[in-house]
Amino acid sequence: MDTGEDELYDADSGNESSAEDEDEDELSISLEPESSSREKLETEEFHYEVLSTEQIVQHMVDCIREVNTVVQIPPTITRILLNHFKWDKEKLYERYYDGDQDALFKEAHIVNPYKAPSTSSKDSRFGPRTEECEICLMTIPKNMMTGIACGHRFCTECWKEYLTSKIMDQGMCQIIACAAHGCDILVDDQTVMSLITDPKVKLKYQHLITNSFVECNRLLRWCPQPECNYVIAVQYVDAQPVTCRCRHTFCFACGENWHDPVKCNLLRKWQKKCDDDSETSNWIAANTKECPKCNATIEKDGGCNHMVCKNQNCKSDFCWVCLGPWEPHGSSWYNCNRYDEREAKSARDAQEKSRAALQRYLFYCNRYLNHMQSLKFEHKLYASVKDKMEEMQQQNMSWIEVQFLKIAVDILCQCRQTLMYTYVFAYYLKRNNQSAIFEHNQRDLESATETLSEYLERDITQENLLDIKQKVQDKYRYCESRCKALLEHVHEGYEKDWWEYID
């Protein structure tokens, strides 16, 4: 059976970063020369591939063709079914052969291809030669009318406008339903591509199909780096580092920058905590109190403990220290004598607890942000290191001999990134004997990293060249070993359930 899927999903498909407003003769996607062949990579035993846009499309076509040889239905219907099951072939096979195919096609909004209604009567040469389009209400020759498997037929122009609007205005591709009111049967790709004549709309549709294929497939993930059109393909989903051809390394499971030693769920929790206004609430709780009568929030702006609520409907007098009524305090303006009362103690304890929680968060957050900022500065070191390397080569050192500087910056950035995420891990970690070992490793790595950063920022002269080189080499080797020891300890803790977390 000639499916024609290679024409339907051609190599123009890809991430939508390519310009859609270019001229027709510029619609093809340009790629780097090395993207013509698959790049197989691995991190220890985690195998993955970096795919170009053409390879993504070919991967989709191969999946469709493989399933099509088993289920023996048109490829465009096969694609809709695969998309319905998030491109999980095993789930599709299981449902397809469970005996209830009618329910399967109904769920996927497809007319059962084995029971598709016959259109021979409408196409008979003995019947009327014209039809009325139910959208524009014009009487149109039959050869200018088009329908899909559900039997609804409209004029070609109305189909074209309808599909163009869905694709260009609404960004739809997988769930474009029939133009008939109340009909949920999906329009197949072959019909879309045959009706659309504008190359820009066709390209947009191919972009959307390809994007949807990647987004729905759990074994594929776009590189999150802006303007990058490559996809990482894996054999199974795991929180492992993958490196794209653009040299960006990220976690395949969550798509964030590689964040060892913290796990994806704790990182998401930390990011949410940093992004929302929970810490604003903590500050309010730590630095303000509520009026004991009307619960209005009050910030103390003077030394006197005699507080008068400024709420016009309240105006109660109370003590800032114990939150009790002011009247029993007599003349003790600055010396509250009710510290031991249960109610006052409870109020003070609640505020102290909130203040302690805020201080703890700020402690870890400041160090996390400090390493993040330092990491940005360390990346700028590459430019200055390049100049130093060129200068050293002019002092009769070979290209190989000066590579120690680039290696040092690479290790420095790796250590900075690891340290940044150790503070996220530490924030949620309950204290025990193993956490004390972790903090010792963290402190040791942090101290060595700071020393290495200091060495790399020094000016290199003919007199101190050999001394600086030896110090840099010794220190980056030590940093590398300490970073490895820290991560190995954390991973061992994951395997042996050493770590307990604070809610």
UniProtKB/TrEMBL annotation:
This is RBR-type E3 ubiquitin transferase. Its EC number is 2.3.2.31. Keywords: Metal-binding, Repeat, Transferase, Ubl conjugation pathway, Zinc, Zinc-finger. Transmembrane segments: none annotated. PROSITE patterns: TRIAD (PS51873), ZF_RING_2 (PS50089). It catalyses: [E2 ubiquitin-conjugating enzyme]-S-ubiquitinyl-L-cysteine + [acceptor protein]-L-lysine = [E2 ubiquitin-conjugating enzyme]-L-cysteine + [acceptor protein]-N(6)-ubiquitinyl-L-lysine. One of its GO terms (biological process) is protein ubiquitination. Residues 1-10, 18-27 have a biased composition (Acidic residues). GO terms for molecular function: ubiquitin protein ligase activity; zinc ion binding. Belongs to the RBR family. Ariadne subfamily. Residues 129-340, 133-173 form the RING-type domain. It is an enzyme of class 2 (transferase). Pathway: Protein modification; protein ubiquitination. Residues 1-42 are annotated as: Disordered.
